[in-house]
Amino acid sequence: MRRFYHPSPLHINQAVELGEDNSHHIGRVLRLTPDTLIIVFDGASGEWVCRIQEISRKTVVVLPLEFSSTLRTPVTKATLALPIIKGERMDMAIQKATEMGAHRIQLIHTRYTDVRLNTERLNKKLHHWQQVIISAAEQCGLNQLPALLPVAPFDSWIAEQQATLGLIAHPGEKPLAQLLPSSPCDFTLITGPEGGFHEDEVASALAKGFHPVTLGERILRAETAPVALLGAIWALWDSAL
To answer: What are phi and psi of 164, to 5 degrees?
Structure first.
């Protein structure tokens, strides 16, 4: 069944309108018809199996038939600290972080972050990236959306961190497998911009207890490192269970 996001909880046997964006997608793009079953999720509490009752140009009316509380999230909460990357590569990084089950995406400005946006452009980008998150959750089956946190300067953000497990994408002496505890726990992962981290930023992270980590000798692109490291962490913990 096709999946669609609706920002408010639904209730069994109480018809609800999904809105203009979903109407366009359901009626014009997918060409679904009344009586088709779909899944609707609210980004927080689970998902509903719904029957389409009516499709018009500006709205879709659905009837929730069955609720499931499943969230399909990892067993731990992962915070990804991600600098703003140029162009569509930022979309990719956010999309894949969502698919990998990140609980929070903290946007950061590092010294070598190339992208600098004024308030108006940043607000538009934040709205766009939120839509990227929604689309990724619709596709991958997640029912809980990761929080997209406002941009913070790296220096002030790292000074406030007290992560149970902190990792920073930077060459270190120990492989990832040796840095992870045997039991899964909440963690924070920092990945860098196209130009990498300034040495003072790495030093600040290490002083707060973060561990440098890489995946071998290859240098990963700024949009590749988050998904590769998140995937490796989940895989290592899954294999240990």
So the answer is: -60, -45
Number of H helices, E strands in the chain: 7, 11
What pLDDT, in 10s, does the model give residues 36-53? 999 999 999 999 999 999
The per-residue pLDDT for range 166-199, each reduced to its tens digit, is 999 999 888 999 999 999 999 999 999 999 999 9
- Among residues 28, 49, 68, the one where a domain terminates is 68
Q: Which of 22, 21, 64 is nearest to 46 (CA)?
A: 64
Task: Confirm whether 73 is domain-assigned.
Answer: no
Residue type, 105: I
CA 36 distance to own-chain centroid: 29
Same domain? For 119 and 166 the reply is yes
Q: Are 17 and 58 in contact (CB under 8 A)?
A: no
Tokens encoding 114: 């190339």
Rounded distance, CA 65 to CA 92, Å? Answer: 34
**pTM recorded for the entire structure:** 0.94
Q: Phi/psi at 175 (nearest 5 deg)?
A: -70, 160
